[in-house]
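Quick question about two entries, pasted in order.
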Amino acid sequence: PVFDVLNHCLENDLPLGKLPVNPDTLELPPKPVDIATNKEARRDWKKKAKPIYKQQVKQRSKFIQVHQIKKIAQIYIDLDKSFFFPQQMDFRVRMYPVPSMLNPQGADYARALLRFKWGKKMGSNDNFDCFAVYGANLYGVVDKEDLETRRQWVIDNSEQILSTATNPLEDTWWSKADKPFCFLAWAMEYKAFADSEFDAEFITTLPIQADCSNSGLQHYS
């Protein structure tokens, strides 16, 4: 479902969720009719056109990247098979996936496309709390507040979350999140959980990122 939204946005040049826009849609200011002979007009036009040129260059690399990610994701969707990410370690023993583009440490819209093959039961209130806090962190409004405030934010905004997950191309509230596509993936999982009437046996396959618990070791290294 997240891929469908991403694909629709790219095919229709909709810059929802901080997607890079098509650089060809960034129009330069109209050239003065006397640009060839009027030095002052030519200088003013170049001054106005310069930031557009810079934006075109910046957006082009990102635009190519998101289309490469989409193409790789489409291949795996068509294969309908699970896969692994081979990892490599740096001198600090930090691990990174070898494949570029589509990986768990990639761009927001790349991470949002990934699911675990085997899930876990939502099971207990503690598990839901962890799930809810992650969703609040992704949206970003209360991500610096205490954990209970973040959990309560999800409960208070439950109706809005369900609405944006049901019709993401009409209710684009998700696109205003700090991590929009990951939040959309989370919101869709929340909706699936709600559709199960919040059954403790509900299986979630959504990857939930957590802060490291031993970052001091990185600083020592």
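Here is the second entry:
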Amino acid sequence: MSFDRNQSHTLRQRLDESPTFMIVIAGPRQIGKSTLVRRALAGQPATFVAVDQPLPELVDPLANQLADTVPAQSIPGTQPTTEWLVRQWTQARAKARALPDGERYVLAIDEIQKIPRWSEVVKGLWDADRAEALAMHVVLLGSSPWLMQKGLTESLAGRYEPIRMTHWSYPEMQEAFDFSLEEYLYFGGYPGSATLIREERRWREYVRGALIHPNIEKDILQMTRVDKPALLKTLFELGCAYSGQIISYTKLQGQLQDAGNTVTLAHYLDLLSQAGLLTGLPKYAGQKHRQRASSPKLNALNTALISALAGYTFADARNDRSYWGRLVESAVGAHLFNTAVDDCQVQYWRESPDEVDFVLTNGRKLVAIEVKSSTNFAAPKGLRVFTEKFKKARQLIVGEGGVPLAEFLSRPAEDWLE
């Protein structure tokens, strides 16, 4: 596949500039962060190292005295250390200093968040480079956004520029893999699984084993404290099954064994959201304290996660209009959440018996969005009630009788606020 996402252009532009800020690329697992950086570095002086896969030249698997000749942190599978990080940085510095004047070197470090105290070490190394005016860019990649953010805000404020990456959109999957709209709705936006969709069982096993399991086991359970890991896993599975539905934390407690209190559930849902797996959209109420106390609307952030865990084949899903409707609504919710930037917020609204699928806000801008997957169109009453209650709101219907679904999924959330 030869396809460049929009972030590739941004990265190349920044690498063409003098090193003023570190470049931070963060986002969910398996969305092409490493591939994007490797392609951008092709043909230029650079070092790309992965924390969980140390440089191959440091390891001789045939050596009889491996433990005596190779530092422990250089052996694949061992815990990375700050010493390993300093060594990679020092080697890259030497190569940067050896370049002719006017040329720049690039050091890219993947999965940086797996190194203990990484942000403190990076701060010292980066500040030393800037004092020297060293012509070396530093690119940091990570798939645990909450740990990345913690290190960035605590130690590296003012020293980096982010490039945000998220799940692949419908236009990207269409251009790169010739996905139809229906295929995107069911198989989702993971590039690594795209070539497997003609073998659904194999595709499903790949998504479960290579995407879901590592996301939870490596990116969450190994990287942050979770007192009830079984509860986290079950909450994710239940959330995918209920994607597109509003469920109170009390009801979730009733569905889960050893659920603990609602604070624990809300915290675990937040971890899943930051990992790019499952989010709980808050209710729009116009008042922050009422939003925090509301029941969440569960939404998987990639419909592949729903399909891989459900008992529906592609054909079964298309033939069940109720199930397909929830898949469509989940795809719309995921698209809004994944493309919402800056102060753009995605919520829902309900005052029984009236409901609006999604509410999009940014400052004083307010859009109420209703998703219609049925061919029998009827003007949603919820939109009318909402706009009567909130006079500044604009109505938007996605699907039958409104903006075509393919068009809606082709434009970011902020476009619909204009």
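Reply: The CA atoms of residues 21 and 252 lie 44 Å apart. The chain has a mean pLDDT of 88. Hope that helps.
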